[in-house]
Amino acid sequence: QGFCQNLSTILSAGIPLSKALSLITETLSSHTFKINLQHAYNALQQGLTFHETLQETQLFSDQIIQMVAIGEEAGKLDDMLEKIAEIREQEIEQFVELLGQMLEPLIIGLLGLVVGSIVLAMYLPIVKLGMVV
């Protein structure tokens, strides 16, 4: 998501794709992503299209690569990258929401165990005292 958003912004400013890719590669913290994008940059310099270079990296899904290809063909790569970033952001939000929905019953169950243990720890001595008398 961040890669597509940043690349879209740089391209929108009128910077050529090869220079934009070089700039973004320098700012990445992920070593694997950086190495793959350097290979993509080299392939771009050798004349491959951007979507072909992304396909070689195997970092992106086929859907994203197809969207990049369409953006290249239409001459609207920056707009398409912006759209990809929006789609990825929505996917991440949906995943986080789903994860929250899945974890909610587990958290409630764990809280129930904690509260139950506390209640049991409080009343067990009282019950034992009642049995002694």
Q: What's the CATH class label?
A: Mainly Alpha
User: Could you tell me the number of beta strands?
Assistant: 0
Number of helices: 6
* End-to-end separation: 69 Å
Classify the helix fraction into a percent range.
over 70%
How would you describe this protein?
- The chain has 133 residues and is an all-alpha fold.
- The protein has a single domain (2-95), classed as Receptor-associated Protein.
- It has 6 helices and no strands.
- The chain has helices at residues 2-12, 17-27, 31-45, 50-57, 62-74, 77-132.
- α1 packs antiparallel against α6 (77-132), α2 (17-27) runs antiparallel to α3 and α3 runs antiparallel to α4 (50-57).
- The longest helix has 56 residues, at 77-132.
- It is rod-shaped and about 90 Å long.
- The mean pLDDT is 90.
In short:
The protein has helices at 2-12, 17-27, 31-45, 50-57, 62-74, 77-132.
Q: What topology does this entry show?
A:
Blueprint: H1 2-12, H2 17-27, H3 31-45, H4 50-57, H5 62-74, H6 77-132
Helix pairs in contact: 1-2, 1-6, 2-3, 3-4, 4-5, 5-6
Notable characteristics:
rod-shaped; Receptor-associated Protein; 6 helices; 133 residues; 0% strand; mainly alpha; 86% helix
